[in-house]
Amino acid sequence: MDNFIHQFVAGLANGGIYASIAVALVMIHRSTQLLNFAQGEMAMFSTFIAWALMQSGFGYWSAFGVTIVVSFLMGLCVERFIIRPVAAHTRSHLPLVVLFIGMLLIFNSMAGWIWSYDVRPFPSPFPDVRILGGYATAHQVGSILITLLVVVGLYLFFRFTSLGLAMRAAAQNPASSRLVGIRVDLMLGLGWGLAAAIGAVAGMMVAHVLFLEPNMLGAAVLYGFAAALVGGIDNPWGAVLGGFLLGVIENLLGTYVIGDDMKLTLALVIIVAVMTFRPAGLFGVTMVRRV
Amino acid sequence: MAAISDNTAARVVPPVSLAAPVVSGALRTGGLSRLERTGLVLLLALACALPLLVTDYRLFQATMTLIYAIVLFGLTILTGYSGQISLGHGAFYALGAYTTAILIARLGMPYWATLPIAGAVCMVVGFLFGRPALRLQGHYLALATFALAVATPQFLKHKSLQGWTGGVQGITLEKPSAPFGLPMTPDAWLYLLTLFVAVVMFVLGRNLLKGRIGRALLAIRDHPTAASAMGVNISLYKSLAFAVSALFTGVAGGLGAIVVQFVAPDSFHPLLSILFLVGAVIGGLSSWWGPLFGAMFIQFVPNFAEDLSKSAPWAIYGVLMILSVFLLKKGIAGALEGGWRRLTRSRRSSSPTAGAPTSGTTPSSETP
Amino acid sequence: MKRRTLIVSASAATGLAALPHLAFAQKKYAPGITDDEIKFGQTGPLSGPASAYGTIGRVQTAYFKMLNEQGGVNGRKLNLVVQDDGYSPPKTVEQVRRLVERDEVAFIFNILGTAPNVAVRKYLNERKIPQLFTAAGASTFGDHKNWPWTIVLQPSYQAEARIYVEYLKKTKPDAKIALLTGNDDAGKDYVEGVKHALGPDSVKKHIVAEATFESTDPNTDSQVLALRGSGADTLIVHGVSKWASMTIRKVYDIGWKPTFILTATATSVSGVLEPAGLEKATGLITSYYLKDPNDPQWANDKGFQDWLAFMKKYYPSGSTGDQLNVYGYTMAQALVQTLKQCKDDLSRENIMKQAANLDVELPMLLPGIRIKTGPNDYFGVEAQRMMRFNGKTWELFGDLIGQN
């Protein structure tokens, strides 16, 4: 029983990792209707920037802050210079997927080129102690709290600020939004910037657990997508819940049922199953296409 | 049926994508001008004569290029024609390769007989995968196929299959030599065999697409609502596209296994699937020649890029992918064909055009 | 006038063409070898996820550069041609074929990885080209009967596993062992090795749990928990860079204190133990055959000082804390020894023969360990020393285990 609790908590901890990435993915999708395959690599790159700042003397929280700002700007630029020129002219997904793959490759190889492929430890802002009766570390709980904080912040932002409202409108109905004077392009850019910033936070939390290296988030992104889909691709709360669910299920199934070496296959099956049978996820809204 | 889509239901902007249908160029109406026909024959003759001109090592590279071209042709059918994005074709390549390897190594089958079987197995799996996939659009399909690509190596390493797959250490195969004691090196023989298979598959594929199936796929890609309203069985055709695409890739995988003489899970990492998409896009999705150019690109660029910098190859792919969306919209093949068309403009003026957008159309800048 | 020059040049050309048969009669050369140069090839992961191992090729290139400045080997310069294979076997095949058929190298040296080596093994053996010192410890590379042209120097994973079992038999005969290994060839070899060394009757008695991890797993927490739950009091972990670090950290964090054996694949203090937390790694046991460059006990050792001076002068961008740089250096020295022994008979047969005829102690090998190969013994290093981590460095203890 004790072991079971440990596995459960470990699953939650992993789930926290997936959840934080999933939130960034949801963020992009909400504002742009796109699945950004390069999200993981961008987050990893941001984390390296944070690391480099800390190496040159910044403290943890100042590096954290600067990285968030830099990542926000990075997301803004990507949207403005790479995505927008293409997305404006086509409804086909192929060029966008191609762009995302291109960015994935570039961010990954740039990180490898600049910082090499050596594995580095990344500090945690939380003390290195065990809490909750010894089942979890402070970092695990702390990073989950930060993820929740981000989600709450997003919720409040979208629900109660006019900017948030404008962003939602721009995503749902660009045509009408323009008519009422919303600068749709700017909203899209902000959406990307925000997603990049959230990704940076996720990366910095996760790096302590996964260790920082260019391929840190390669597989995690897939788990993040699975989590986001399970929770409903437009719903940050869903993403968090999806992440936890995925983490726990994966751990428990892996330990007790299917074996350690099928976890990724499990993620694949979940992705395909959700998309086939319940595309809106647990909490999303089913989009019906009018014909 | 409810499908995941962007909620821009009322939009009727004709989608302009990287993949205008393959109706440009001389093969459009099936009638080749004499000049073009001669050119094609010369090219084929040159290809057949290659073993006399280059070393075995170059033949090996040429064979791999042809193999990649077959894969990319399959991918073009799926993505260019049917508009479905796959980031998981490495999985079918692996499936074809392992089918061949297992048939040869464990069941003693002659290598040439394994190719149709590899193709058939992949075709069935492709069809089965295409069924749920048909409900997915754009990004979602890309994601599902990417998940497939990532899960493949793990799957191949699984203990339960180890007796067949050789587990992590894989399967080593014998290199076949020319049959009937023909006076050529094994590399030359494999090259000619691959060339033969490539030409056959190309002709088969083209014929398939020129007919009703091709038109149905184009209709589904560009105006799915209208197509469905006109009675086109969307699910069937989409799954068929997947199946045919997988067939091509599977045959290529089988050839790859024979030529490299080795299969192992490490050979089929997820980046391979990405590489295939890169090759297809950069080669050009709107031309019959795209797959060949794309294949040459992915075969030879790493060798050049290495001299620049060791991490260069993937960065270069990334940059080129992005550039291709902005500049080389139709890939290398498209750019070349544009030039060719300008040269031979006078001959073109009377040829009919098929309905859907061709390379001459500028991207619609209709604002919502 | 013209005709005479033609005849003169024709006879001169014929004469020159005949010279090789006269002047070089007592020297035998493989392709790629001349009076001045020995050209040989290697592929490695210079790009892609495994490119941290690319430093092996770089440190070796630097070492040969140093050697060439000192005159080379028997008057010949060593020319190592390294190609990138991205750790992908089909690419390895292509690059090796290029090295052999286009660059015409004499032999292949120190390719990294089990699958890449297996991929080209048949090709090289069929053409009788030496595949020297595979940078992969799978025991199949010492199979001299089936693959007489392939040889490995580093201790095989199975031999290493045997060492741990020997150690346990002596110190903890009732051990209840749990195994955590990567789902790859090395991991499987370790498991095989442990079971083999225990013997079929003892396996059931001693091994109480097994688990594997993937390179795509976010961490090994779940596996560690499961293994603890089995009641094991001994843990053998196949170390792979960051998963080793994670495992060390997790074991400590859950308060489990088994006899913790970490395989030699991940014993780097800076690369593995520091990220985990040095205090969490205290008490870890491993075995190794090379000197750890981070270990202060070698500060005054001549071999170490030579290596350090070499690194500073010829490979300043390389990390002096990276064990891979010691490994590459030592393999290079083993190659130099082989070539020295060849003297002027640099045919491929003789190169292979000398590779299988080594008995040498190299400066960065731990004291007492020798590289010894023979026509029926294609495993170069079979002895290792056990080490225990004391919170700062690895401390050697006990005698040599395994024989040379």
Describe the structure.
- The complex is a heterotrimer of chains A (291), B (368) and C (404).
- Chain A has one domain (2-219).
- Chain A is 74% helix and 1% strand.
- By secondary structure, chain A is mainly α.
- Chain A is globular, with a radius of gyration of 19 Å.
- Chain A has helices spanning 2-32, 39-55, 60-87, 94-115, 138-160, 162-172, 174-179, 184-210, 220-231, 236-258, 263-277; strands at 130-131, 136-137.
- With 368 residues, chain B is mainly alpha-helical.
- Chain B has a domain at 48-269.
- In chain B, strands 1-2 form a two-stranded antiparallel ribbon.
- In chain B, helix 3 packs antiparallel against helix 4 (111-133), helix 11 (270-283) crosses helix 12 and helix 11 (270-283) runs parallel beside helix 14 (331-343).
- Mean pLDDT of chain B is 77; it is low at 1-30 and 350-368.
- By secondary structure, chain C is an alpha/beta fold.
- Chain C folds into two domains: 37-155 and 298-383, Rossmann fold; 158-287, Response regulator (Rossmann fold), CATH 3.40.50.
- Chain C has 13 helices and 15 strands.
- In chain C, helix 5 packs across helix 6 (185-198) and helix 12 packs across helix 13 (348-355).
- The longest helix of chain C is centred in the N-terminal third of the chain and has 22 residues, at 2-23.
- Helix content of chain C is 42%, strand content 17%.
- Chain C has helices spanning 2-23, 55-69, 89-102, 114-126, 157-171, 185-198, 200-206, 221-229, 241-253, 269-276, 302-314, 323-342, 348-355; strands at 28-29, 37-44, 77-84, 108-109, 131-132, 177-182, 207-213, 234-237, 259-262, 285-288, 345-346, 359-360, 371-372, 384-389, 394-401.
- Chains A and B meet through helix 3, helix 4, helix 7, helix 9 and helix 11 of A and helix 5, helix 9, helix 11 and helix 13 of B.
